[in-house]
């Protein structure tokens, strides 16, 4: 599965679904769950952290933490991915979601872990959410 930015941001910004996301991301960190995240998504998260006035140390710790996630693979979208993402705009997605979708397609992923319901429009991919805590 490919992880969307909002899964990380829920936790990092201590939002409503923070615990669900933390529990899920811990499974990825341990290697119990295998997932992909794109460098584009990582950059989007960093930009959002900066907008919320998080300092450089928090941003650095976030990046370093990704390197310790045993189940996480980092994907670098190509120019071809970006061109293909533009075609996904016709599906009613903005460019960020379109490139996220294209990154999933490029990695043969059938799921996107996200709270973004815009992905529900896409028939070729399943949107999932982190499970509710027990």
Describe the fold and architecture.
The chain has 134 residues and is mainly α. The chain has one domain: Rossmann fold (3-Layer(aba) Sandwich), CATH 3.40.50. It is built from 6 helices and 5 strands, in the order E-H-H-E-H-H-E-H-H-E-E. Strands 1-4-5 form a 3-stranded parallel β-sheet. A two-stranded parallel ribbon has the order 2-3. Helix 1 runs parallel beside helix 3 and helix 5 crosses helix 6. The chain is globular. The two termini are 22 Å apart. The mean pLDDT is 95.
How would the blueprint of this fold be written?
Elements: E1 2-3, H1 5-12, H2 18-30, E2 35-38, H3 39-51, H4 56-67, E3 72-75, H5 79-88, H6 95-106, E4 111-113, E5 126-128
Parallel strand pairs: 1-4, 2-3, 4-5
Helix pairs in contact: 1-2, 1-3, 3-4, 5-6
Distance between the termini: 22 Å
Beta-strand content bin:
5-15%
Mean pLDDT: 95
CATH-assigned fold name: Rossmann fold
The number of helical elements comes to: 6
What is the CATH class?
Answer: Alpha Beta
User: How many E-type strands?
Assistant: 5
Integer-rounded radius of gyration: 14 Å
**Strand count, sense and closure of the main sheet?**
3 strands, parallel
The chain-level structural class is mainly alpha
Gross morphology is globular
Give the tally of structural domains. 1
CATH superfamily: 5'-nuclease
Strand order of the largest sheet: 1-4-5
- Helix and strand element order: EHHEHHEHHEE
Q: What is the annotated CATH architecture?
A: 3-Layer(aba) Sandwich
Residues in helices, as a percent range: 40-55%
């Amino acid at each position: 599965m490919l992880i969307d930015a909002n899964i990380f941001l829920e936790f990092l910004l201590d939002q409503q679904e923070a615990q669900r996301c933390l529990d899920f991301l811990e499974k990825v960190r341990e290697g119990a769950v295998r997932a992909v995240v794109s460098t584009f998504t990582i950059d989007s998260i960093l930009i959002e952290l900066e907008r919320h006035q998080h300092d450089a140390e928090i941003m650095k710790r976030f990046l370093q933490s990704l390197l310790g996630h045993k189940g996480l693979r980092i994907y670098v979208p190509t120019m071809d991915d970006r061109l293909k993402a533009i075609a996904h705009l016709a599906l009613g997605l903005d460019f960020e979601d379109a490139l996220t979708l294209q990154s999933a397609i490029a990695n043969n992923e059938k799921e996107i872990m996200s709270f973004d319901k815009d992905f529900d429009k896409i028939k070729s991919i399943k949107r999932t959410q982190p499970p509710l805590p027990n």
